[in-house]
Specification:
Layout: H1 2-19, H2 23-40, H3 56-75, H4 86-92, H5 100-123, H6 132-139, H7 142-145, H8 151-175, H9 179-201
Helix pairs in contact: 1-2, 2-5, 3-9, 5-9, 6-8, 8-9
Length: about 200
């Protein structure tokens, strides 16, 4: 089952985006898959790691960096060689002006808790070093980003995401809780998606 758990994001996101051209289907399919795989493996106990444990130093560092992700994306948008048809592509994936706010809300409020429990709480170990799961977590994002950015920027994004996965895992290792990483993940998702929404609305 662990091998299927690691493959699941690639299957769910790949089918949702590449076969059905629907961001909602990709995201919800991914989340349903997480719950099904964890249920089958009797891994729901890992959700206990979401209990609130607050370490001010780690929280401040993680949460500020996460907010900066969206801010830097917004400010540096014009310097990123994005595909010209980006707004049209987003609409074709079901992300219209009316659905974007709902997508951002669902993504930010649901996705971080599931992903942190799944990737950091269940699949990853307590290593101080980069592990395969850090890259597997970042790797499935390639399916999303490859449609919009060049290979050089894609490689940079994968490295940043792997570093984020490693960093959040270290906070979990230090505090014994996924609360700070989950909030950091939430802030990163919200700030990045909001930056994309605002920037594409201006095109």
């Amino acid at each position: 089952m662990p091998w299927l758990a690691r493959l699941l994001p690639y299957l769910a996101v790949g089918l949702g985006l590449l076969l059905f051209d629907n961001a909602w289907l990709a995201l919800i399919g991914y989340h349903v898959g997480i719950l099904l795989v964890m249920g089958h493996s009797r891994a729901f106990g890992h959700f206990r790691y979401l209990r609130p444990v607050l370490h001010p130093g780690w929280a401040a560092l993680a949460w500020i960096l996460s907010c900066l992700a969206g801010l830097l994306l917004y400010l540096g948008w014009d310097g990123i060689p994005l595909h010209q048809a980006l707004p049209v592509s987003l609409v074709s994936l079901g992300l219209t002006g009316q659905s974007w706010p709902w997508f951002i809300a669902y993504f930010a409020l649901v996705n971080p808790w599931l992903e942190e429990t799944y990737w950091r709480g269940w699949l990853s170990g307590p290593s101080k070093f980069l592990v395969a799961e850090d890259f597997l977590f970042s790797g499935y994002h390639v399916i999303i980003l490859v449609q919009f950015v060049s290979l050089a920027w894609l490689a940079l994004a994968v490295c940043i995401l792997a570093a984020a996965a490693w960093f959040w895992r270290q906070i979990f290792r230090k505090t014994g809780s996924l609360f700070i990483p989950a909030i950091a993940h939430l802030l990163a998702d919200f700030s990045i998606l909001t930056a994309i929404y605002l920037r594409t609305a201006l095109l």
